[in-house]
Amino acid sequence: MDNQELINLIDELRALPKETEWVEFKLNTIKPNEKLGEYISGLSNAACVNNQSFAYLILGVDDNDHSIKGTTYNFKQQKQGNEDLEFWIRRYLSPSIRFEYFECQYGGHTKIEIFRILATIGEPTNFQNKAFIRLATSLTQLKDYPHYAKIIYNSQEDWSAKIIDKATIVALDESAIQKAKEKYKEKRVGKPFYSEIDNWSNALFLDRAKITIDGKITNTAIILLGKPESAHFISPSVAQITWKLDTDQKAYEHFGMPLFLTINDVLKQIRIVRHKFFPNNQLIATEVLNYDTEVILEGLNNCIAHQDYSYNSRIILTEKANKLVFENAGSFFEGKADDYLLGEKTPKNYRNKFLVEAMLNLNMIDSLGYGIFKMTKSQYHRYFPLPDYTKSKREEVVLEIYGNSIDENFSKLLIEYFNEINLSEVILLDKVQKTLPIKDEAAKLLKKKGFIEGRKPNYFISAQIAELTNQKAAYTRNMGLDKEVLMSFIVKHIENHGFATREEIDLLLLDKLLDYIDDKQRKKKIENILQEMKKDKIKNIGSRGFPKWVILGSD
């Protein structure tokens, strides 16, 4: 890599979040020498767990703010005893993995050192017979996290393609096979073999659809087409969806195999009703369904396709009063949800490659990374909040699909100015209405267009949009009242009642402060106002713990 390519790589890595587990920034040096070997082990293993081809160790970049500082470290000149450090580290890495070392002159005069470390495959990378892994921002021993060790050992194996020796076609549901053949045929219109499909035997069809392998039953075949009583073939893994109703009413039901059929039974549980919006520029209401059935099926099929079946857990669909919550085990396999919102990213790999291909052949999913994009467009076209993955955790993907508006005025905005706001701007405004963080460049763009106001991270819908969508009252609350007005409330209260306790002052002012800050910030704001008023307006004649404020100069 030439120097400019290295600079581009460094800038790309600096733009990543601080907690990225396959990138480690160090300010200047690494001591003792053993630590460097442990980092190479930990980063190689972390790259495998996070489905990355490489991990990176960068010297000369501040880990706190990713600013360029430079380093005086020189890896090529380091020694371990009488031996070159590089040879010593490579000798103690097992299995032997390739890591590359580069020096970069950043900005022409600041030296940065880069280690590019190949992700391990099939077994953990050890240093001095110990395996490490980087989790969040910490380097720790892999033995304390057996599930991640299992992921590494299974990294060369596609669980969904595994053949079940004792299973035969008798383990599959005949009606599910026939329905699957119909769906397979629908996608093959125009193919030379289209007219022959009806005459295929079940065994031939299952092989052609990549559900079985040479007539042998796979985990994929059991998940999609297996009879309920065939569940033991994949045990302790589970192929089951649990639907839960969590509203003023409570209910639940489990749906097992064959998931190719029972997914439609799950869909029937969801209450689909019409929702009305009353735009300001129209005389009649706009009606939309609270949920799009294709979005529900897309969400469920994504859960089936991307579930980490080694967790031995169910897929859960919770129906709440205003949204559906989909939960499946395992992290995002490649990238993050935001990468797929615009339909511009195509994943290079999948956790369950064989299962994904079978589901694609049966028209259950789109394998090109457009699933999230399709759900996003559907929500946008129905004026609802966009698909939300923000509650996802390290070992669980959580998708929320709203069947109601968070802020109805935001929905009205989409109706009234549908052709004037592009999808990228809708995505950013959706984050603002959900009080989610947005990047500085995005905030600058939205401010330039007059869409938002406020200071990082407390952005809110601007006066311009407030005017367009009748949010004037909300805008006034967001802007808050002048400090002098708030002070006058306190003085008036004391004049009327003789004194004011802190509890009374909080009760008086809390709902008059900025609408987008939390209670802790509001109380701190009140504390600052009281401290300023102590100079020339009021005094405390009580204790610090139980203040009693009176007008300055009174008894």
Description:
This protein is α+β, with helices and mostly antiparallel strands and 555 residues long. It has four domains: 3-153, 2-Layer Sandwich (Methyltransferase, Cobalt-precorrin-4 Transmethylase, Domain 2); 159-404, Heat Shock Protein 90, CATH 3.30.565.60; 408-479, no CATH class; 483-551, Arc Repressor Mutant, subunit A (Orthogonal Bundle). It is 36% helix and 19% strand. It contains 19 helices and 24 strands. The strands form eight sheets. A five-stranded mixed beta sheet has the order 14-13-17-18-19, covered by helices on one side. The chain has a four-stranded mixed beta sheet with strand order 1-2-7-6. Strand 20 and strand 21 form a beta hairpin. Helix 8 (259-269) packs across helix 9 (293-306). The longest helix has 17 residues, at 33-49. The relative contact order is 0.06.
Give the helix/strand layout.
Elements: H1 3-14, E1 23-26, H2 33-49, E2 54-59, E3 79-80, E4 83-84, H3 85-92, E5 93-94, E6 99-106, E7 110-118, E8 126-127, E9 130-135, E10 138-141, H4 146-153, H5 174-186, H6 202-208, E11 212-213, E12 216-217, H7 219-225, E13 241-246, E14 250-255, H8 259-269, E15 274-277, E16 286-289, H9 293-306, E17 315-320, E18 323-329, H10 353-361, H11 371-381, E19 396-402, H12 408-416, H13 423-433, H14 440-448, E20 452-455, E21 458-461, H15 463-468, H16 472-479, H17 483-497, E22 500-501, H18 502-509, H19 519-533, E23 538-540, E24 548-551
Parallel strand pairs: 1-2, 13-17
Antiparallel strand pairs: 2-7, 3-4, 5-8, 6-7, 8-9, 9-10, 11-12, 13-14, 15-16, 17-18, 18-19, 20-21, 22-24, 23-24
Helix pairs in contact: 2-3, 7-10, 8-9, 9-11
